[in-house]
Amino acid sequence: MTETQNKVIGVLGGYGPYATADFYRLILDATPAEKDWDHPHVVIDSNPKIPSRARAFLYNEESPLKYMIEGVKRLKNAGAHFFVCPCNSAHYFIKKAIDKFDLPFLDMTEVVVKKVVESGKKKIGVIGSEVTVEGKVYDHILAKNKIETVHVNDLSKVRKIIEHGKHNKDLEEGKTLLRELIEELKNKGAEGIIYACTELPIVLPSEEVDFLIFDTSKILAQSATYY
Question: Where are the transmembrane segments (predicted)?
Fold first, then answer.
């Protein structure tokens, strides 16, 4: 195991729980382990009880930020050297108050956009929640790299897909909807698509899509393993 892999990874999760569980599996998959002890030390704070990110953004209800800050404090106390958050919507809040967190932050949006830049694609579709899309979580970073962003017309369809993933139920219906949205973005000229919600690969894994998908969960897991 390298010195990098000896770092303790802190995962600020629970947004939602299935996405966090899937993210941990992806960390294990990203590690070339032959024995149990070859895997990284991971501390997970999974707290689905925090206020809704979407409702805070859309209706100005209670912000989840203070609960995220408390979660990172617990991760630090448990020995984490840095933290990640496998929730794209949460990045809208975290990045606005990054100086309030007690640990270094591995930013999912930055590592994902780095992969997009490396691909050489110049027009990218983004499928995400209301917070991620309307809050332009990816648009600003992509624009800085001279990459055009396209979105789906109806975010309510994305919300339905996300709810299927959050509860890990009725996935076939979710798959059908997600495939329709992928086709919509392809018709708008997208050369690749960012899965900008970590519930999306639960519904339709990127391996099952015959198109370039930037799976944010997978990219973050790989980056965290070698951070």
Answer: none
